[in-house]
Design goal:
One of its GO terms (molecular function) is hydrolase activity. Helices cover 34% and strands 23% of the residues. The protein is α/β, with parallel strands linked by helices. Strands 1-2-4-3-5-6-7-8 form an 8-stranded mixed sheet, sandwiched between helices.
């Protein structure tokens, strides 16, 4: 049976050598592509497996790096890097553009059909690419209800889907309201799904190291959020070609 292929890709961004995970679908022709961003801890096997799952659906998928090949399992170390990053839209866009350049130059990628999907900090990077005017077919985020600089959301030219846990203390109702107000004022085609009873990073399987308060895995909602992401891609970035070609 023919299977997907994967490889590691290295590229410069944010003064670091980033190490991403590229997954390619069956066949040789060009395919729609997905830029996949990780939680603030950084790229892990969770995102690598999701990129592989997207390739199995027919997408070229790049799970990008945030921290130069490092996974920040120490919450203090993670926050020390991510808080300044989240406060700097230009840095986030730089990280996103560097990964996007890798994805666009992959011969299997159709450069006119790319979506961004991300979790936490990786989702914020996807949103900033949209606010920066990048031509994306869709933006999907979980736990990333960040707001941008005033007026820049009007540059988003694609549907935006966002998911969040109802009990997420890092993305509380006030943050949800600010995000949706920004999207609405900008005329964005937006959707927000609130998953009842879920905490922050509810999609991420339990880890064997300390985490920030308010984090917790919710297996049922994790599956639902993944289905919602896949549905978003099916709507906005359908794979219509013969995958054997």
């Amino acid at each position: 049976m023919t299977t997907i292929t994967t490889r590691t890709v290295e590229y410069p961004a944010d003064g670091l050598t980033m190490i991403g995970h590229l997954a390619l679908p069956v066949g040789v022709g060009r395919r729609p592509a997905v830029l996949l961003g990780p939680e603030g801890m950084g790229l892990s096997d969770v995102e690598r497996r999701r990129a592989d799952a997207l390739a199995e659906l027919g997408y070229v998928a790049l799970a990008f790096d945030l921290h130069g090949g490092c996974y920040l399992g120490d919450p203090e170390e993670m926050l020390a890097r991510c808080i300044p990053l989240l406060a700097d839209p230009d840095r986030m866009r730089g990280i996103g553009h560097a990964a996007l350049d890798v994805l666009r130059t992959e011969p299997r990628t159709d450069p006119d059909r790319i979506a961004a999907v991300g979790y936490g900090t990786g989702g914020a990077v996807g949103l900033e690419l949209g606010r920066g005017g990048v031509d994306l077919r869709a933006i999907g985020t979980v736990n990333a209800l960040t707001t941008g600089r005033p007026g820049e959301a009007a540059r988003i030219r694609c549907p935006v889907w966002a998911g969040v846990g109802s009990e997420d203390p890092i993305m509380p109702p006030a943050q949800r309201n600010a995000f949706t107000a920004e999207m609405q004022a900008a005329g964005v085609d937006w959707r927000l799904v609130v998953y009842g009873g879920a905490l922050h990073a509810f999609h991420h399987p339990t880890v064997d190291h300390p985490t920030v308060p308010g984090v917790g895995y919710h297996p049922q909602h994790a599956q639902r959020a993944w289905r919602d992401v896949v549905d978003l891609l099916a709507e906005c970035l359908p794979v219509t070609e013969n995958l054997g070609a």
